Structure formats: structure tokens, C-alpha cells
Amino acid sequence: MSRRVVALGLASLVLTAVAALVGPSLAGAQGDFILWQLRVPRVLVGALVGGTLGLVGACFQTLFANPLASESTVGTTAGATLGALAALALALPGGFPTVFACSCLGAGLASVAVTLVAGSGRATMGDVLLAGITVTVATGALSVGLQYLSDSRALVAASRWALGQLPQVGYDGVLVLAPVTVPCWLLLLTRTRALQTFTFGEELAESRGVNVPSLRRLVLAVGSLGVGACVAWCGPIAFVGLIVPHVVRRMVGAELRRVLPLSLLSGAAFLVLCDALSRSLSPGRELPVGVVTAALGAPGLVLLLLRTRRSAAA
Amino acid sequence: MLNDVSVRKGARTLLDHANVELRGGDFVALVGPNGAGKTTLLRAALGLVPLAGGRVRVNDADLALFGARARAAELAWLPQHSPPADALPALEAVMAARYRFQETTGAARRSAERALERVGVGRLATAPLATLSGGERQRVAIAALLAQEARFLLLDEPANHLDPAQQAETYALLGTLVRDGTGILCVTHDVNLLAHTAAAPRVLGLAAGKLRFSVDYGSAELSGRLSEIFGVHMLSLAAGSGRVIVPAPPDVGGPSA
Questions:
Q1: If pLDDT is split at 50, 70 and 90, which confidence band does B257 have?
Q2: CA distance B4 to B26
Q3: How do beta strands B2-9 and B53-58 pair?
Q4: pTM for this entry
Q5: Are A253 and B85 in contact (CB < 8 Å)?
Q6: Which residues in chain B are contacts of A215 at CB distance < 8 A?
Q7: Domains in chain A and their CATH numbers?
Q8: Residue B151: is it exposed, middle or buried by C-beta count within 10 angstroms (0-12/13-18/19+)?
């Protein structure tokens, strides 16, 4: 089992690194520029975003005791999207910092709304998930309203962003995202044991010494911050947080000591590879990476569910 | 431990001014009909339900003032049904019960292995919980309870899912723990199992949220008191050096209790 852990970890790292080389030849004077100013920063941002989504997804699945929970199903991504979209579509002044702040604010408010709607203190996890779906639907409707209200130039920018993509020149994205996401990773990973104890139910976890309300607050807040940052920079990217932890669990078992760090690494590799695909599928043109993750993630998840059901039936 | 504790749910009183004395080295058994409030009493003692009145005191301090980890050092809980974390190996499930200790994974693993050995299921360490039988899972849950190393154990039907030999073994193990100074409060349906503890248990009778009696396990009064709270005539039959208490068959007339 532990050989699989090492194999999956190493494969994720190697694939992430190799992804930078995928695409048209890097020969000539332009090659250096393409590699160091376009591909490498893109891979780094992809890794930061994918790792965050994968890890937050795995933590949310545990916190909500629900295999279908992830930042996109409990309303966090929707809240972040609404916040960032408000900044973009209404062309608020201040540039990226405003988008970033609005996105984190939206993610945080959505998470708070989910906990409040669910009755905070001693709500069951089913309540929280239902509240998450409500928030997602509501913010989705508000987003459409915002796009309807915005002027056409802002609308084009906003709808491009809303597809979810990674292209960029230079290292701004890395410099913006790394200082936010990496501390989020570390904080979430320090809660591994508490989350593992939590898998036995809230009350048993409480009786074993886990401060459940504080654990829930921390994971929701840190998850919202990380997801808010990612959404602000590259738009909503679906399915990473949902499918990556499932695949990891199937490969290395249910121990969160393994699942959490590997969801981080594999999430990074998955998004970076999807991005490599998105820029090499049709030469000269790029698909938004959000389209690729959804195109791979949705059927992948269906396949997983079917196989899980078959093995449960057997 | 419980001082005049009441628990209400809406207009219903689940627990009415309950007083329970439990010290290290005590074995207290809690019996009563279904719905009497036995599980509620344990949950109240653990601080898992809000109290409508009274206090839970541990070491002469109010439990409400304890942090989660400090409370876990005092009280450990074996719930009636432990939710299965299906794919997790038994050893990891036991390690998760050691959350209160700040220790390395290796140290947690060694303690968890010892706990599994102690309840006789060391061979199951790597088996995923989902593949275990009901009895095996119950013993893993008991191993997790031991691994927490709390001073007081609150058990809800520890003999659940166990065959007669395992039930006897489990109560014998509880007896050993009591002699080592652990305090045990144990909900049970079968008072006869208490004989296996080789301790001197006290039996508390709970009915409709009220504690009705507190008698020693060896007392001749016990069968009469049980007849009262269960509303069925209980016979005390001599067996070996002790006795067993069983519900009377229909053709044995009982005293009008």
C-alpha cells in the first residue's frame, strides 16, 4: 500500500513538471521565452490552483461526511464566482486586487451562509449540503442577472473569465496565488488527525477530544480563502475537487494521512495535464481548461460511481 | 459524576434530576426498559447534550469548563452504534481514538496494536472495517475505547453483537480495568453478565427518566427491583456460587409488584 502512495506522489510530481514541455517545439530564440515566460508560470499556477482544489475537495468530503461534497457542491465556488463576477461585470475600480477581495468575500459569505442556513452549532451534515446547494442555485441566478446588467465590454471579459482558464505571461499569478494557497495547504494539513477522527461522526469525534465547531470553522474559512483566490485568478474550474479525492482514495485507501497530501499533488497534476491538453488539442487555438476538466471529470465520475456500485453489489 | 442532572427535549423530560456517583475503581451498571433514558444519561455525562438543570462534575470540576482534549482524557465513550468508516483498516480506526495524545504516528500505531491485542483481535489490524462481522467490529470499537486511555469509561451495551463467550470475556476485561482504577458506567440489558467482572458492581435502575434504585449486584433485593422497573416478574435462580436473574416463564406466578 505504501508503495502505491510513493508511486502516486512521484507520478503526480513528474507529470506536473513534464507538462510544461507539451506543445509546439521550443526551438529557437522564441523557445526560451515560450518556456520561461508562458509555459512554466502557467504550469506553476495550474499546480497551485489544482492542488488547492484537490485538497479542499478532500477536506470538504470529510467535513461534510459526504462523497459528493466539494468546494463546488457546498456553494464555495459559486460564492467566489459571484463575488469575482460582480467586480468584473460591474467593472469595479482597483483591478485584480478588487476581484481577488470580492472573490474571497463571496466564497466566505457563501460558506457562512451555508453554516447559518444549516443552523450552525449542531446541524447535521445533510443540512449543510442542502444549504450549499441552495446557495449555489441562488448565486447562479444572481450571476446571470449581473451579466445581464453589465455593459458589453465588461461582459466579454467576464464571460471569458467565467469559462476558467490558465493562460498568462510572466509570474504575477504565481506571486499572487502562492502566498495565499500554500499557507492554506499547510493549515489544512495540520488538521489531518482531527479530520480522520471526525470520520467516525461528530459526537464520537467530540468525545475523543476534537473541538468540532472550531474544526468546522477552520476548514470552511481556510477552504473559502484558498478557493476564493483560485477562482479570482482563473475563474471557476469544476470537477477537480470532486473527482481527484475519489481517484486517490481508490488508489491508496481511506487513511487521510495519505489521501490529503496526495489529493493536493494529484489535483495539481490533473489540472496541469488538463491544461496541457487544452493547448494542444487544436493547434493555434486553446480550449479553456475548465471545459477540459469538465469533459474528463464528468464521465470519469460516472465511471467511478458505476464501478463502486458494482463492487458493492458483488 | 452527575449532580441533579435534567435533560429536556421540547416538552418531554428525558432525564429527571439524576444523581450518579462514579469514582475511579467503581463499576456502575445502568439498567432500565427501552426509552428509559439510559443513552441520554451517558450523553449528558459526556457533555453531548445541553443540560436543562444540574451539573456534570469530574474531579470536583465542572465538565462544561473542560476543553475537548482534557475531557477526552477523563471520559471515553462506547456508543451503542458506532458509525462505520468503511474502507478504513481496523488499526487506523483505533489510532483515530488517540486524537487527544500529541504523539507520532508510530507511537499511535503501537498503542493501537496493543489495544487490539488486548481484546483479542490483533489479527484484524489491516482488515478494512467494512469486511468485519458485527462482533469483530464491536471488539474493534472496544479496542478504540481502551486506546483513548481515559480515566472513566461510559459504555452503551458493550456486549452488543457479541457471542456468549465474547460477552463473558468483555465483562471480564472490564472487571480488570476497574481493579486497575478505571471507573466504569455501563448500560446493559443483561445484569447476569456483571458476574463476569469479578468486581462488586452497583446497579442503578432507570425508568421514565428517573433513577429508581441503586443496589449492589450481590443484594437479594435486585430481582425484586428489576421486576418493578421492567414490569415483568424476574426470578432469581441459584447457579454455582451465585445466581442468575431471568424473566419468569408465563406459568410461574409472580408476586404482584
A1: very low
A2: 20
A3: antiparallel
A4: 0.90
A5: no
A6: none
A7: 44-313 (1.10.3470.10)
A8: middle
Confidence of residue A314 (pLDDT cuts 50, 70, 90): very low
**CB contact B87 to A (< 8 Å):** yes
Indicate the pLDDT class of residue B170, thresholds 50, 70 and 90: very high
pLDDT in tens, A15-26: 888 887 777 667
- Beta bridge partners, B13, equal B8
Cα R_g (chain A), whole angstroms: 19
For residues A63 and A129, the model is more confident at A63
Q: What is the pLDDT of residue A118?
A: 58
Average pLDDT over residues B155-159: 93
Residues from chain A contacting residue B128 (CB–CB below 8 Å): 254
CA distance B39 to chain A (A): 13
Q: Which of A194, A210, A255 is nearest residue B92 as measured by Cβ atoms?
A: A255
Q: Calculate what percentage of chain A has a pLDDT beyond 70.
A: 91
Q: Residue A300 has what pLDDT? A: 78
Going from N- to C-terminal start, the domains of chain B cover: 2-219, 229-257
| Fold of the CATH domain B2-219 | Rossmann fold (3.40.50)
> Which residues of A have a CB under 8 Å from any CB of B?
193-194, 196-197, 199-201, 203-212, 249, 253-255, 257
- Which of A194, A199, A212 is facing B85, going by the closest CB pair? A199
Give A53→chain B minimum CA distance, Å.
23
**Least Cα separation, residue A192 to chain B (angstroms):** 10
Give the integer Cα–Cα distance in Å for A236 and B59.
53
In chain B, the percentage of residues whose pLDDT exceeds 90 is: 69
